[in-house]
Amino acid sequence: MESTLDIFVKAIFTENMIFAYFLGMCSYLAVSKTVKTGVGLGLAVVFVLGVTVPMNYLLENYVLKEGALSWLNEDYGVNGSNTIDLSFLSFIMFIAVVASIVQLVEMLVEKFAPALYGALGIFLPLIAVNCSILGGALFMQDRQYSTILDATSFALGSGVGWFIAIVSLAAIREKIRYSNVPPALRGLGITFIVTGLMGIAFMSFMGVEYGKKEEAKSNTESGGAVETSQIINVKQVN
Amino acid sequence: MSTTEEKLKAPKEPLFSKKNKRLITDPLSDNNPITIQVLGICSALAITVQVEQAFWMSISVIFVMVFGNLIVSLLRNLIPSRVRIIVQLVIVASLVIIVNESLQAFVPDVSEKLSVFVGLIITNCIIMGRFEAFAMSNKPFPSILDAVGNAIGYAWILVLVALVREVLGSGKIWGANIFGNNLPGEESGLYALGYVNNNLMILPPMALIVVGVIIWVQRSMNKELVEEN
């Protein structure tokens, strides 16, 4: 079993939102021109993911999932006579939660933390349509985390991973201005290729093994190669 | 931008006037949503390992965009501008639910592979972008054309990237071997001569690099598209 910490670290490195799943790419490419804006958007993503994923987790487990309404009436449970499965509604519910939480968070932050609002400012409204937020909710649903703590640590890990990705890309793009890029590749083209190369670098985290310390010690020699090929197979399936 | 031109349009015009044709042809190359406007790449890159997935994803996006643009355009005078984002999200989300349920019913294995990325059509920036930039201020018919143009502009890049990655990465097109059999011990075709699939192409980062190269080719052919920095 994966521990909560494993999930956190895995979400940052092995299953990085940007480099493994390309989530939130639109704003990632558009807002990564300078480090300052990159940090602003990155923080906003960490924050909103950390709030919305646990909310959606509760919604999923107490309203939408098959038999989740059993707390209302025994009959609605999985083994009840009248099982209710609302999971087809999950897209519309998740996006509604994301959009309204973003709005709410924006108002609360403006009222109680003006300094933070100054930093996140224009980025908060943008986030409602950032794929990584909805993606976080959908992955949470897909992977069926067993406790809300796991779901939250997954959300925060994904957010931090996204933050690292955007800040490092912004730093590279600030420097790239001084290099002699072929004209047709300037701007967008080189950004894509740089992101791809960063993704390849991040793939080196794939060999990291989680949650099996004793086993790993005994078969490090043979285990490593097998693990990598397995991961490649998994990617193929995806 | 084409939106401002559209506003000035004369009320009477033939069904496929020059302007309407441009609505379809522009997004295919010079104003392509992926390579020029950089929209909608979130979901585009992740599902381009195989042509089959890319094809079904494209069909889904075309469906959602055409009907979404039509609905938004019909409702454009009724939607209060303060809550328009939420209204648009609800429209897209409902259409995506229809797509998701149909995929699960008719092509369950594809639906399984696309997993969360069908849901992510909701936050696909192309769709929201076209709602904002076009459907909110134009009549239904041009909106449909605009949606068709942009969705196909998205689709062909998607299928092209998937084609490159599937051919080089696994030596297949739509799941069928094209270079011969590569099962260990019974190689045939190119594999018998020592050809090896480039497994790197299957990995996620290569999607970005393939798109980067497509952008490179496109901009070297059309110098007007070159960016300053």
TrEMBL record, chain A:
Q: Which PANTHER family match?
A: INTEGRAL MEMBRANE PROTEIN OF SOXR-REDUCING COMPLEX (PTHR30335), NA(+)-TRANSLOCATING NADH-QUINONE REDUCTASE SUBUNIT E (PTHR30335:SF1)
Protein's membrane topology: Multi-pass membrane protein
Catalytic activities: a ubiquinone + n Na(+)(in) + NADH + H(+) = a ubiquinol + n Na(+)(out) + NAD(+)
Mainly localized where?
membrane
Gene behind this protein: nqrE
Top enzyme class, one word, equals translocase
Q: What is its EC number?
A: 7.2.1.1
Q: Which protein family is named in the record?
A: Belongs to the NqrDE/RnfAE family.
Q: What is this protein called?
A: Na(+)-translocating NADH-quinone reductase subunit E
Please tell me the species this chain comes from.
Answer: Brumimicrobium salinarum
The UniProt function text for this chain reads: NQR complex catalyzes the reduction of ubiquinone-1 to ubiquinol by two successive reactions, coupled with the transport of Na(+) ions from the cytoplasm to the periplasm. NqrA to NqrE are probably involved in the second step, the conversion of ubisemiquinone to ubiquinol.
* HAMAP family tied to this protein: NqrE
Keyword Zinc set for record? no
TrEMBL record, chain B:
What GO biological process terms does the UniProt entry carry, in alphabetical order? sodium ion transport
Q: Where in the cell is it found?
A: Cell membrane; Endomembrane system
Q: Any transmembrane segments, and where? A: 54-75, 87-107, 113-131, 143-164, 200-217
Is Cell membrane there in the keyword field?
yes
Q: Identify one Pfam family in the record.
A: Rnf-Nqr
Q: How does it assemble?
A: Composed of six subunits; NqrA, NqrB, NqrC, NqrD, NqrE and NqrF.
A Gene Ontology cellular component where this protein is annotated is: endomembrane system
Q: What does this protein do?
A: NQR complex catalyzes the reduction of ubiquinone-1 to ubiquinol by two successive reactions, coupled with the transport of Na(+) ions from the cytoplasm to the periplasm. NqrA to NqrE are probably involved in the second step, the conversion of ubisemiquinone to ubiquinol.
Membrane topology according to the record: Multi-pass membrane protein
* Enzyme type, top EC level: translocase
Q: Name one GO molecular function term.
A: oxidoreductase activity, acting on NAD(P)H, quinone or similar compound as acceptor
- This one is known as Na(+)-translocating NADH-quinone reductase subunit D
So which residues are the signal peptide here?
Answer: none
For this protein, what is the EC number?
Answer: 7.2.1.1
Keyword field? Cell inner membrane, Cell membrane, Ion transport, Membrane, NAD, Sodium, Sodium transport, Translocase, Transmembrane, Transmembrane helix, Transport, Ubiquinone
Reactions catalysed according to its record = a ubiquinone + n Na(+)(in) + NADH + H(+) = a ubiquinol + n Na(+)(out) + NAD(+)
Which domain of life does this protein belong to? Bacteria
HAMAP family cross-referenced by the UniProt entry: NqrD (MF_00428)
Q: Which family does it belong to?
A: Belongs to the NqrDE/RnfAE family.
